[in-house]
Amino acid sequence: MSEHTRQLTAFLADLAYEDVPEAVLARTEDLFLDWLGSALASQGSHPIPLFERYAQKMGPASGPANILVNGSRSSAYFAALVNGASSHLVEQDDLHNSSVLHPATVVFPAVLAAAQDRGKSGRALLLAALAGYEAGIRVGEFMGRSHYRIFHTTATVGTLAAAVAVGKLLEFDQEQFVNLLGNAGTQAAGLWEFLRDAADSKQLHTAKAAADGLLAAYLTEDGLTGARNILEGEQGIAAGMSSDADPSKLSDRLGSRWALVETSFKFHASCRHTHPAADALLQLMQREGLSHEQIEQVTTRVHQSAIDVLGRVVVPQTVHQAKFSMGTVLGLIAVHGKAQLTEFHTLALTDPNVSAFREKVSMQLDPEVDGAYPARWLGRVEVTTTDGRRLAAAIDEPKGDPGNTLSRPELEDKFRRLLAFAGARSPEQADELIALVWRLRELDDLGVLA
Amino acid sequence: MSEHTRQLTAFLADLAYEDVPEAVLARTEDLFLDWLGSALASQGSHPIPLFERYAQKMGPASGPANILVNGSRSSAYFAALVNGASSHLVEQDDLHNSSVLHPATVVFPAVLAAAQDRGKSGRALLLAALAGYEAGIRVGEFMGRSHYRIFHTTATVGTLAAAVAVGKLLEFDQEQFVNLLGNAGTQAAGLWEFLRDAADSKQLHTAKAAADGLLAAYLTEDGLTGARNILEGEQGIAAGMSSDADPSKLSDRLGSRWALVETSFKFHASCRHTHPAADALLQLMQREGLSHEQIEQVTTRVHQSAIDVLGRVVVPQTVHQAKFSMGTVLGLIAVHGKAQLTEFHTLALTDPNVSAFREKVSMQLDPEVDGAYPARWLGRVEVTTTDGRRLAAAIDEPKGDPGNTLSRPELEDKFRRLLAFAGARSPEQADELIALVWRLRELDDLGVLA
């Protein structure tokens, strides 16, 4: 195996709870709560019931692991599958910028299911999730922008992130991590093609990444060997699915850089690529005291991936597509001041003011923004007013980014809103879950997290 | 969607049992028997028990579908998974040349499991398997040689082949097939990197292709939408994993060309890339009356993929690696006259004559052979004898290829040998299974195939 893979797997094997700074543990709890809210918020929404029915058809009638959206129990595999589908649906789960990976939606479904299956503690879960984040983010950075142009990194690299988390939970040594990366990497799959049809693949992707990662870890534990150089080998994932892979990313500051804390929380309920422009527009409108009627035209100056991912959607036909429509997101911001789940579900497709505003919005590639991406997601908008003024605004760190993060009260508020939106739990149950998560590292039995 | 995808999905939806020529149906039965023997022959061999245990851990305690190697029953998903792992292990399953796809090991596990689950007849299974072969082979040809250089086509394209077979069994219309291709294609995964480590990924690949294809079909039936242009789209499988894709292959002579009958049976128990040279060497030694001691040197003139796949193995450490060692295969042929399972397991790693012969063998890229590949797998060997003669032999169609196929008695003999090798079934049981397969199109209940 290569030196970078050797360093990464040694780090994963050696990582101990005692070595993790308190702030990193606390942020892992934050991310867990944020994830749990996203998973529960999808209750009843298409296509989640399809995954629930599939688990009923193919899985055992009961088991050690919770399927969150319906409170049923199954084997760890199906809990990972359904919870993985659930937690990415409302587009409110976290994102790591420079890897363009959504770690929570693949790491937590797998590691919670495995922890419930194997009777592991909250501390073990936190440490394992951290390992999944640290590995997944570095592999995502390693795979580069060329990968993300065609592949849904959260699906492909997500399989490895989920696998590493479960492997850490199962206390793998370095040799097992080497095989695990091989077994997970060779299952890495997921293409962006579905976006232009507003198809359901995103849920399939995260479901499969979580479940396949768990499968890789269980089979590796039982002795299945994998390619020893799946990341950097001549017929490995970078050789097959990247043209700008950078192996040094794999071992970047292991043990001193905690990539998990660089992960952003989502504030708006839309594709993260819309957030910098949304925040910049909001700032500009507040600064200038503008209403949406006073705006003639908006040019968002964006990075190339924003155009690749969002450029497909001209007139959104579904709520999901609306979340990938820059014009719709900015329309909600301009007309209603926010673009949360409620706005998407009640206004995004039906409010004529929003559609009218959508037509005023265009995207333009900006070399500075593109150069900073994906390490930094800069927001730049240029506005022409109806009275002929040309205004501009810039934000360097969108709301939810590490330097502009959500506090625990803000996270609790978001959690309650997510659960209320879906009618998933009562306000009292929401508060109980919040309290449980803030005590995660004291819990010996994770079966209570249902 | 593109015109080729439209034609392919229309063909799949319209394909009717009555339209299939008798010879094609009969060959489908031949391929089914050949597959069943390969699956049963893996009983007890690593890593198959790992998949059996995984199915026990994660699946239901019983179910409608048979896990062949242990006679247990589970849900269709786990039967497809374990049987998919099983049937590629002994490297005796079929191969379609120009697509470099092993269709049986992905199509039959999925379609048999689904047929048992849904109470479908033998006729329905044959038609569905045929659809899987026709689609899978064309998608494999479409993806081209650049894909196979890094990706294990039987894993990637195999997911689509398995999905189409199950979709046909579930009587999908064209619209469902469009979504099915999207749902299967976005799960397509599998890298060759494992080969150089002799890792267990091949079993993981075929297991997952069969099971993921089945999952795609069941979810599509229930309403999961997929990308409508996964094959040819700008962010589809060819865009991501091929540089020489040829869309016209997707609709190549649909309804008049039956690609299934082009599929080759394996005669030697090794990687198919070794077979042309093995047959050519055997012919040369018989023609010249040579023994292995009289041979000083063998140059096999091969296509590039043979070098890519076989070139990693210098001194094989495992039986599986020996099957990917051109020198070992030719050594068994030269010293023992055959390279069947028994020779691999008793002689390939231990017979000093075989290892000595291995050292005499080299591979050399041959423009003519490479140009004909993958449509034709030409065998060319040049031999230098110890007394200084330079001899050559050429075969244009290795044993088992469509123009040099195995007869039913030869297939029955192979089936009995495979079962006897593994001790999987008694000779009487083997004969009963053979009789059942030859009556497949009369069977209403496929639960008897256990």
TrEMBL record, chains A, B:
InterPro entries: MmgE/PrpD_sf, MmgE/PrpD_sf_1, MmgE/PrpD_sf_2, MmgE_PrpD, MmgE_PrpD_C, MmgE_PrpD_N. Pfam families: MmgE_PrpD_C (PF19305), MmgE_PrpD_N (PF03972). Signal peptide: none annotated. GO terms for molecular function: lyase activity. Residues 6-248 form the MmgE/PrpD N-terminal domain. Residues 268-439 form the MmgE/PrpD C-terminal domain. Belongs to the PrpD family. This is 2-methylcitrate dehydratase PrpD. The lineage of its organism: Bacteria, Pseudomonadati, Pseudomonadota, Gammaproteobacteria, Pseudomonadales.
